[in-house]
Design brief:
This protein is mainly alpha-helical. About 75% of the residues lie in helices and about 0% in strands. The longest helix has about 30 residues, at about 325-355. The protein is elongated, with a radius of gyration of 29 Å.
Length: about 700
Amino acid sequence: MPATALSRRLGLALFRLHIENGIAVAICMAVVGFGFYAAFGLSVTVLAYTGAVCASVVDQPSRFSIKPPIFAGTVLATGLISLLAALSGGNPIGLGLLVAALSFIAALISAYGRRALGVGVAAVLALVLGMSGQKDTLAAAIEHTAIFVSGGAAYAVLALVMGALLDSRNRRVVLGEALRAFANYLRAKAAAFDPAETHKPSLRALIEANGVLAENLQIARDMIYAGRMTERRLQYANALTSLVDCFEQILSSDADIEILRRSQHRHLLHRMRTLTGDFANDIENLIVELDARRHDIAKIDHRAQLRAIAEEMARLAKTPPADADEEIARAAFSSTHTKLVRAVAQLDRLARVIRRSESVMDAQRVLNLAAFMQQETTSPRVLLAQFKISSPTMRYAIRLTLAMTAGYIITLLFPNYVHGGWILLTTALIMRANYSITRQRRNDRILGTLLGCIVSAALIRFLPGQWPLAVVFLSVGVSHAFGTVNYRITALAASVSALLLIHFMYPGTQPLFFERIVDTLIGAALATGFSFLLPSWERRNVPQLVNNLIKSDCAFAEQALTRAPVEQTYRLARRNALDSVSALSSAARRLLDEPGADKRALAALNELLGANYLFASDLASVRTALLARAAELNAQATDDVLSAARGIVLDTLAEVRRARAERPDHLRRRGLSELPDTAALPFLRRRLLHIERSARNVAALAARVTQN
């Protein structure tokens, strides 16, 4: 492999947010470990290290302003829990009540989102570690807790310092993650253009990639749009805004994908597939440039590809179309080619913004960036709203509490055969509010623990002295890095770090690897079994998610079918529509793992997602055409046809069971006579007719899904 290709692949592989976060965590853990070891010796270091491990759980990539309160709350909460657990020695009832209460609270606060879930995990980890350090006297328990809190506080300070120093780089990395998701979307889109690929699976893959892109865009907004805008931050904000515009232009080229795939011109589809794949290479080159901060990477010139497609279409146009379908196909190819030409221009603009050679739009002046960030709240009303049995969060809290209590009772019944802390930790880490995630984490946890035991045994056997302690730093960083990416790797690395810590905390005992596996199996069985108690099946959430989808579609359609919408309002409506698709797509993916899932209902849901994706591409097509051909359109005539179509689309979507409104006379025609006409207004009429049909399809499928 050439050196340049190897360097490019290595850069793409390492320029990842989760990897850099894992490296930062490992560095902070190493500094804490070596600092305490040099000052106080091994026994104090191991205890302080456990406090640092608890604090590291909440050290997730996010805007810097929210990190200090999260760290402060986590260190104080875990310190209090560690103290209570240490004081509970000899009182099994008191410890059982603590296990139950903490489990309930940790699950309940998950209503505040992913960050709160991390605080809950840190709390359970502090409980488990505190149980192993139970003390007979108050003074001993306070000393134990003081060392534990010192380690957590030391880690928090180091993490905040590193976060402040790396804030600009983190914004750059998160922009790179959004670009990576866009490149993956483009590759999925290229496959959809391939006539050799089956249409429905390729469309599903495209929708999945679209959902991942929407998630990464929101993560990037939350970090890049936060705080005071320096010149560098404004560059990243402008690049992110330009990336979204580029995505919209690419999305619009899918408006006629079904017509293109039904045509006989497979050679044209192959050329469009190659072109779109090269777009993905362009984006990956931009990621490498963003990482290396160098702008000498060769750019792909797409003019020859576009010219070849145009020449082939011109050759076909020399012969009259054989039938109406051929005429429609030629018009669709022509329209898609035009959109791809515009897409190349958008890609060039995105590259210029990243290279700081052009400021496409000052996002801060045009938009209220704070409105695009995820709104987080600590209002107690969120918690109070969960106190009803119909709440999925309350059901999860009850399930987790009973599962953890059952695990604790098992440890009391068989104290010589099981390790209570490992069972409780396994149960808490596996069980989630959703059955699909619980099932996946169970499988990953079991395999990861098995491999972790093998690796730990080898390390203890072959590494001399204190060297295995250095592996703990590395394994904590690895487990942290892959927590949201690949839980199997996280489980493996976490098992290694935990087993090595136990080895140093109790050097006189032999690590009982077989017992750890048994403990894991018991915890996994508890998490799985209690998942069927008061379950919150995903299928119960589908009607609400579909309603949210239709509501966001209406808002997006209202803005997209307006000649000159307010920029802020349009962009918010577009973002909300994409987020609704992502939420429903994620639910459909989780439905696959649920017992008793209705395959027909799942097929209908996938059909709805496909129809909705094509509807969104239709709306994007109108928006990009209105911007590109504004000078060709008569304002009054354009407003008339847009208003008529907008009314029909909104009426169709708002009342999926109500008969659709009649089309006005000037939109009633099929439009075949205008197909060869490339003038702006006839093109717009054809597109609006297509959108009306798409809206009816979405409404019918939505009604079918909600009625199942």
